[in-house]
Amino acid sequence: MKLTTGPGKVETLAEEAVVAACTLADAAGPSRWSADAVEDVAAALEVLAGALAQLDPECAEILSVVPIAAAAVVERAEQAAAGTSETVGGRAAAGTSTALRQALAAHGLTRHRVHQLGAALVTVTLDAPEAQALAVLLSRRDALPRQAQPEDEDGWGAGPAETAAAALADALRAHGTGAYARVLTSGQVSAGLTPQAAQAVVAALTVQPGAASRGKRRGLGPGFKGVASR
Length: 230
Prior knowledge:
Order of helices and strands: HHHHHEEHHEEH
Largest sheet: 4 strands, antiparallel
Strand content: 5-15%
Shape: flat
Oligomer: single chain
């Protein structure tokens, strides 16, 4: 990574961002935040992390947790504003996230991160090849292969990670509403599910005939050669 030393527009804008952040921090307090204010600041964190992620792939990987953390903070703020209790729901979501980890591992999808973001959201982050493999596992066997669809539709054909995210989003929607998948600045694919959708995904992976042992995946075809071994 090569950094410039002379002053410029980026330096001026970065300094303005620091001043604005300090002003906000001085004005903020535990009782002064609103859900909208939390959402705005979380969005700012994600934008700034995305800007820093352009430095190099390693920085992008380090900062890939910021969108996840920001989403978790917004989730908690929304729950607090609504006055909802997450004790029971949180335990249920924790059990669901554990079951999801186990179901993924049973199919050899071991390079993943599963997070419980409050009681209403479970996220799973995977490398692009594993996201594509999960999409295949979750897709109906009688469905037309999605790769045959127009390349400019819904991000298909825009690149390996984008294509994997689009395929996974399509597959997840069949298991519950509100599911999504997107590409992080690190190049990984992050999917978000309601606990109900996550349970449906776990059920779908569990009933796969002869769930593959760790390191092996059945029925993925020659297009996934090299993905199974890690």
